[in-house]
Design goal:
Hsp20 family protein, A-crystallin/Hsp20_dom, Immunoglobulin-like, stress response, 150 residues, 3 helices, ACD_IbpA/B, four-stranded mixed β-sheet, HSP20-like_chaperone
């Protein structure tokens, strides 16, 4: 029997359980590069945190934009070509820290809001929360009650 890995569904669609949208999002994510690595963490019932490993970037090089239900995180390495003398001095035996620009997109569920973003020790943390409006929350209707319209 063939096993299907559903982990792309869980890591790319935050705050909603619309299966069709999750499948579509996971299909897009499979085509994306895996840089930079990230975690999506459930902090509470409706609270989430995205943590991205972005070593070598400063706050000035990172842009976070929310448009409709998509969170865009981009990192631009400034165009600073090392001088010839610098290139000769730097000799890597192993180069595992990537120094390239990136763009990551996360599909957000309905009513998911970005609360804050901070950067510490090469990690970018983006906190999110799903805030359901009162009109969308379930209401208990008592039997025998009447709605009085004024």
């Amino acid at each position: 029997m063939r096993t299907i890995d559903l982990s792309p569904l869980y890591r790319s669609f935050i705050g909603s359980d619309h299966l069709a949208a999750m499948i579509e999002s996971a299909a897009r994510n499979e085509k994306q590069a895996s840089y930079p690595p990230y975690n999506i963490e459930l902090l509470g019932e409706d609270k989430y945190r995205i943590t991205m490993a972005i070593a070598g970037f400063s706050q000035d090089n990172i842009e976070i934009v929310v448009q409709e239900n998509t969170l865009h995180v981009t990192g631009e390495i400034p165009n600073s070509e090392p001088k010839a003398a610098e290139k000769e001095q730097r000799q890597f035996l192993h180069k595992g820290i990537s120094e390239r620009s990136f763009e990551r997109k996360f599909q957000l569920g309905d009513h998911v809001k970005v609360l804050a973003a901070d950067m510490e020790h090469g990690l970018l943390n983006i906190d999110l929360e799903r805030v359901i409006p009162e009109a969308k929350k379930p209401r208990k209707i008592e039997i025998g009650s009447r709605l009085i319209e004024g």
